[in-house]
């Protein structure tokens, strides 16, 4: 029973602290100034082919396939 109490106390204190620090690190990493380009690119994916739909693989030439993959 003594081992259980020790592990429970350890998890309650240091485990909670470790999870909080991990969460804080993820939040800071997301808002770093250098991440703007990655966020900008991912948020514009739905509008990439706004004027015309992406071509089918059978109808497209290599340049159009490459554009559809970007």
From TrEMBL:
Keywords: Membrane, Transmembrane, Transmembrane helix. The keyword Transmembrane helix applies. CDD domains: cbb3_Oxidase_CcoQ. Residues 40-70 are annotated as: Disordered. Residues 40-52 have a biased composition (Basic and acidic residues). The chain crosses the membrane at residues 14-32. The keyword Endoplasmic reticulum does not apply. InterPro entries: Cbb3-typ_cyt_oxidase_comp. Pfam families: FixQ. This is Cbb3-type cytochrome c oxidase subunit 3. It comes from Rhodosalinus sediminis. The lineage of its organism: Bacteria, Pseudomonadati, Pseudomonadota, Alphaproteobacteria, Rhodobacterales.
């Amino acid at each position: 029973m003594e081992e259980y109490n020790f592990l429970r106390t350890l998890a309650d204190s240091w485990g909670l602290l470790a999870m909080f620090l991990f969460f804080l690190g993820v939040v800071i990493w997301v808002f770093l100034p250098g991440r703007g380009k990655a966020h900008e690119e991912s948020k514009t994916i739905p509008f990439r082919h706004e004027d015309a739909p992406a071509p089918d693989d059978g109808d497209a030439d290599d340049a159009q396939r490459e554009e559809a993959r970007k």
